[in-house]
Structures are given as structure tokens and as C-alpha cells.
Amino acid sequence: MSKAKVGINGFGRIGRLVLRAAFLKNTVDIVAVNDPFIDLEYMVYMIKYDSTHGKFQGDVSVENGKLNVNGRLISVYCERDPLNIPWNKDGAEYVVESTGVFTTIDKAQAHIKTIGLKVIISAPSADAPMFVVGVNEKTYDKSMSVVSNASCTTNCLAPLAKVINDNFEIVEGLMTTVHSFTATQKTVDGPSSKLWRDGRGAFQNIIPASTGAAKAVGKVIPALNGKLTGMAFRVPTANVSVVDLTCRLGKGATYDQIKAVIKAAANGPLKGILEYTEDEVVSSDFIGCTSSSIFDAKAGISLNNNFVKLVSWYDNEFGYSCRVVDLITHMHRVDHS
């Protein structure tokens, strides 16, 4: 079976890293990129150099008005309106919608001009079916034309929550994500259209923030619907975040028993999605990690056999981008079965 042909709309952090992930994994072909704010020469520069993830390990240049990445030609467009992007010209079957703007089914469907083109929103969506690879991607069916890859935090939390709930039953839980700053934050204090403190300087502060990541787990694991909620702290680091899941268990277990179950899942059905470590790690150790969730066995604690705090790391940029590619690969397999 041929590889899925993919277009990327929005060449920001996730758009660029989806491209890197695609070339690393070699399971999909990127055929086109659209961004109205970045010209072709600048795209070459932005692919080649990255302050967080380092220099691209390959060749990037301009050839006949297209991107040439490792000898593969990629069309480039600069359209503001998705209706005007000629995805069909390049044979794209799937579009990664990574602008952060078109996050509902109605808005994302602007990409779809012919039957067969599908859109993967690289963000949570209010109404699109939401998938977390390793958790619920098998519920995808070929009738779906717009889907969401959920958030980076949901991709970290859901595999861990699934393992714990399947084995010990989560009665209720609270999640905190200690999250690196993102491009939506301010470098210095400035006005915020939402909560006032969201406008405070990202490099100077630990900023409490809202997140729907924990509640979204209930959408991908229906058994946990209404049992989890959470919040975030935005902190002055450029990449890698960490989830703290504090939960009450229905079936009592020692912390060692919990660790053993997570380790077995990481080495078995969730290999490549969930990892297990007992090393004395810190956040920067996970820059470039392709897994969704790396359980830190030494960081967690338990109060008793029914009340535990579990800690899991994630590269909120690259790990997530790898799951976007994996979801498309799975969709393509199902669509052509």
C-alpha cells in the first residue's frame, strides 16, 4: 500500500515538527504546505534551524518554486482562506490543520473540496471526533472526514489513565500539567484578551492557567467521563512538560504494583506511546522524545493503597507531532482496507 499523501496548513511549531516527524518516521509523504505569512525562502530557513530541536538532519533547499526536502519536492502555497488551497493539485488525501484557527468541523471542512480529502486538527475540538493513538484510535471509521488529535497533554494523560483505570479503576482524579510556555504567551507583560494573568511575562513567572486536557480524557475513555478534571501551570521553559495525576483508586494497590503494571504496558501494548523510566531525569532529558507519555517511577508517591500521585513527562511539541503522523498512518490503513 502506498503512503498517505499529506498537506500541512499552518507552518508554526506543530506544522514544522509534523514535517520533521514525517521524514523521521517515513510512513507518510508531505506533498504541500500552506502558510500565508511565511514565504518559500523563509520556510527553508525555519525547517533547517530550530532553537529547541536543533538543526534538521537532512537537506533543505528551493527547487523550481517548491521545497526540496531530502530530494522530495513539496508544493508551497500562501492562501489565507482554506477554500483557495489547491490540495487536489498535489494529490493530498489528508490535511493537518495546524493553524489553531479552524478547530471545529464546520471551519475545518473548508479544506474539503472533493470526496476523500480528510482533515486532522492538531488541537482539541469542540465537536470533531477526538483520537489519542494507543487509547481509542481503533474507533475511527472511514466515514469520518474531520478528526482531532486532541492536545499534547491529553496525549500524555490518556495512555497513563487507561492503564490505571483498566487495572485499578479510577474513582476520581485531579490532573496538573506543569507546562512549558508556548507562542501564544507574552515575552513581557502585555494585554490579554482572556484572563489577565495570561498576559504576564512567560519568562518571569509561573502562571496558573486553565486546561481542558483532563476532561477531554473522558471523550476518549468514556468510562472516565466526569471523573477527571485539571489545571495547568505555565512555567519558564521552552519545551517538555509534565503531568501530575492524583487519583483515588477503586481497587487498592501498592505503588510497586502500580509501577509493574505501567512498565508491562510500556513494554507491551503501548510500546512507543507510553514509556517507563526509573532514571533520575529532568525535563530537558526528554527534548525530542517521540513517545506520548514517559512515566517517572521515582517521582510518584502514594498516601495509601487507594490514593496515589503519578508523574509522566512529555515533549509537548515533538512527541505530539509524532502522534499526528501516527494517526494519519492509521486512518490511511483503515481508509484503504
Automatic annotation (TrEMBL):
The active site is at residue 152. NAD(+) binds at residues 13-14, 35, 80, 122, 316. The record marks 179 as: Activates thiol group during catalysis. Pfam families: Gp_dh_C (PF02800), Gp_dh_N (PF00044). Pathway: Carbohydrate degradation; glycolysis; pyruvate from D-glyceraldehyde 3-phosphate: step 1/5. It comes from the Eukaryota. Its EC number is 1.2.1.12. Residues 4-152 form the Glyceraldehyde 3-phosphate dehydrogenase NAD(P) binding domain. GO terms for biological process: glucose metabolic process; glyceraldehyde-3-phosphate metabolic process; glycolytic process. It catalyses: D-glyceraldehyde 3-phosphate + phosphate + NAD(+) = (2R)-3-phospho-glyceroyl phosphate + NADH + H(+). GO terms for cellular component: cytosol. D-glyceraldehyde 3-phosphate binds at residues 151-153, 182, 211-212, 234. One of its GO terms (molecular function) is glyceraldehyde-3-phosphate dehydrogenase (NAD+) (phosphorylating) activity. It is an enzyme of class 1 (oxidoreductase). Keywords: Glycolysis, NAD, Nucleotide-binding, Oxidoreductase. The keyword Repressor does not apply. Homotetramer. Belongs to the glyceraldehyde-3-phosphate dehydrogenase family. This is Glyceraldehyde-3-phosphate dehydrogenase. It comes from Schistosoma japonicum (Blood fluke).
